[in-house]
Amino acid sequence: MLYVSCAWVPATRKLGVRKMIDAVQRSVALKACRAYRTISLHSALFILILLSLDIRVKEAAWLHEVKREKDLGDTFVDQELAKPVYFSELPAHVPEIGFENVEELGSYTLDRLAVVGPHIYTDGSRIKGKVRAALTEWQDGEESCNSRSVLEVLTCSKTYHYLAHEARRDISEIVAESRAVRLFWVRAHAGIKGNERADELVRRADKTAADYDRFPLSYAKRVTRVASLEEWQEQYAEGSNGEIIKCFVLRVKQTYRVRQIDITSQLALTLTGHGGFSQYLFRFKLKDSLYCACNPTKI
């Protein structure tokens, strides 16, 4: 359904096209949620936690434009997409790189690891949606980083990240000169002066200009999904269908909690109100009264 969605996304604004898309998705959603055929499409999608196809088409088309680095208005101002390194640009021979976990860098540890040369401590943190990083060089040490995930990406030979590719290339050049590079993961706030100094410099990084402002595709997907959920919320709030399910959940973001629950047929009937209930049976003239038998004054 989403194939070449960027080409036919303008057609989703037409009412006739949206009706055809809704009919296709509704037939599948009804079988998946195991509810009565009389429920609305929005109720079925709400139970299954699925975006409507017209929103998904817009989302897929927008991501395609991001990959093409099209002008997206105020979404990503003066920023570029972080593209992966092409396979053809990877070197044929790459030295094997690994890292060790180090809790502290005392004299005993330095002697045991035979660490010689300069120490370069790095640190990074995510503050207010932005990542800040800093480094500090110390004598008689080795490069250490408190981000284990970064070291795992750096030491993986199959990574295609642009920054990891540059770092691995620099390490290869150093190794080619018969010099050694060793990486260590140091636990944060372990009392190591170099690491604490790097952490202090990170907090000052917000006062400097950004050195790297490219955004990954995962960030673009997250921004797109937030916009899609907002549009879904508007459709959900303004729609006249699914009044009973709105008694349980008011915002669509809360539906993600339902992922932890196994949606059974009985639960779907309860959430939609389309089942063996007095109000539902009275609606189709299958019962004389819409009130409950246990209390004739209440529905």
From TrEMBL:
Pfam families: RNase_H. Residues 169-205 form the RNase H type-1 domain. One of its GO terms (molecular function) is nucleic acid binding. Gene3D superfamilies: Ribonuclease H-like superfamily/Ribonuclease H (3.30.420.10). It comes from the Eukaryota. InterPro entries: RNaseH-like_sf, RNaseH_domain, RNaseH_sf. This is RNase H type-1 domain-containing protein. The lineage of its organism: Eukaryota, Metazoa, Ecdysozoa, Arthropoda, Hexapoda.
